[in-house]
């Protein structure tokens, strides 16, 4: 199967279950909202080594937010309820409350349950906190130096899907990079999904376990390293491939992850020099979701 002359490999992406939350961060200006959203989703590329997986879902104009100000939807994900509760409290408390003019609202639909994040944060007000209602939502108003920080009392969480992925293989590194950036731009238009790696592009694809060091849970995917294609006997790279980047996607639902993969692959296949689209899987050892690339189309 090919798209614009690019081979779509007959393989699948192996994804896994994860707990997901979805928040709306607003502020006085679009710039300030973006700063807070970026801060709250930092150090969150992969739960292999980070305390969470997180990213910016998309921009929301003032006409569509509860407080009539510009905002950004962010997603924060973790393997379990307790860990996600901790990350929400830490990231809202240290990444959003500390940012100028911000407020934060729950925007996850059909949640499995709710966590009392805002209720916990209100105690930062040292007894001066107040309770408000905005757009039918229970809000805690916490006085801070610059005014009041507004936070919804409860935030929803539900079972989501993490680790949807595909590889972009091209003639050169720069062609693969241009294709990867085009893919990320296309994925940003799919609500309910994020690309948690820096800039949405994965430079260092990994594998489960390690061949040489038993103290590592994950290590470099040597079969997909362009600089090792002459050294690794079972390389997955053709000799003419000079650049590879991976895109990893987390989503609220499997269908949203599939949609993001589809749109990202279509965008990547419009770039000259792209030769093949593949995906990462671990023989069923990592997760329960197997997303076949060709079946996306």
UniProtKB/TrEMBL annotation:
The keyword NAD does not apply. Keywords: Acyltransferase, Cytoplasm, Hydrolase, Methanogenesis, One-carbon metabolism, Transferase. Its main location: cytoplasm. One of its GO terms (cellular component) is cytoplasm. Pathway: One-carbon metabolism; methanogenesis from CO(2); 5,10-methenyl-5,6,7,8-tetrahydromethanopterin from CO(2): step 2/3. Pfam families: FTR, FTR_C. It catalyses: N-formylmethanofuran + 5,6,7,8-tetrahydromethanopterin + H(+) = N(5)-formyl-5,6,7,8-tetrahydromethanopterin + methanofuran. GO terms for molecular function: formylmethanofuran-tetrahydromethanopterin N-formyltransferase activity; hydrolase activity. It is found in: Cytoplasm. Its EC number is 2.3.1.101. It is an enzyme of class 2 (transferase). One of its GO terms (biological process) is methanogenesis, from carbon dioxide. The keyword Transferase applies. Catalyzes the reversible transfer of a formyl group from formylmethanofuran (formyl-MFR) to tetrahydromethanopterin (H(4)MPT) to produce 5-formyl tetrahydromethanopterin (5-formyl-H(4)MPT) and methanofuran (MFR). This is Formylmethanofuran--tetrahydromethanopterin formyltransferase. It comes from Methanobrevibacter filiformis.
